[in-house]
């Protein structure tokens, strides 16, 4: 009986978080999805299959506006940590992987919109 009550409380908390529009994705997840793309973003000719899979995972794991805004902020933060990222490659990454993420990847993007 107690397990049922605990499960109900957890489910209610999850519903409240979703209703409030809180992002479920973390920067750690975004970093792990896109880590295989560093070679491409710093100069390799084509993104690897692992990179493109990460871009697909990123899209699949950001279904809400709050998720996409959180991922955007994570990507912008990560871009400041890694030197040598070529902006033209970052802009082309979704297209090179055949994934429409719905927003351009640019350093001046407003993540709140």
Automatic annotation (TrEMBL):
Keyword Transport in annotation: yes
Gene3D superfamilies tied to this protein: Plant lipid-transfer and hydrophobic proteins
InterPro entries (alphabetical): Bifun_inhib/LTP/seed_sf, Bifunc_inhib/LTP/seed_store, Plant_nsLTP
Location of the Bifunctional inhibitor/plant lipid transfer protein/seed storage helical domain: 27-111
Keyword vocabulary terms for this entry: Lipid-binding, Signal, Transport
Stretches of the chain forming a coiled coil according to its record: none
GO MF assignments: lipid binding
Pfam families xrefs: Tryp_alpha_amyl
Signal peptide: 1-23
SMART domains associated with the record: AAI
Keyword Signal recorded: yes
GO BP, sorted A to Z: lipid transport
Sequence similarity: Belongs to the plant LTP family.
Function: Plant non-specific lipid-transfer proteins transfer phospholipids as well as galactolipids across membranes. May play a role in wax or cutin deposition in the cell walls of expanding epidermal cells and certain secretory tissues.
Protein name per the record: Non-specific lipid-transfer protein
Upper taxonomic lineage: Eukaryota, Viridiplantae, Streptophyta, Embryophyta, Tracheophyta
């Amino acid at each position: 009986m107690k397990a049922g009550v605990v499960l109900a409380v957890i489910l209610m908390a999850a519903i409240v978080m979703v209703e409030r529009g809180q992002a479920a994705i973390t920067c750690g997840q975004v970093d792990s999805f896109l880590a295989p793309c560093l070679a491409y973003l710093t100069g390799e000719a084509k993104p690897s299959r692992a990179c493109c899979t990460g871009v697909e995972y990123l899209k699949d794991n950001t279904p809400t506006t709050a998720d996409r805004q959180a991922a955007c902020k994570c990507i912008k933060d990560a871009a400041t940590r890694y030197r040598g990222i070529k902006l033209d490659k970052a802009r082309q990454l979704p297209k090179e992987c055949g994934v429409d993420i719905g927003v351009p990847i640019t350093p001046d993007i407003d993540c709140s919109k």
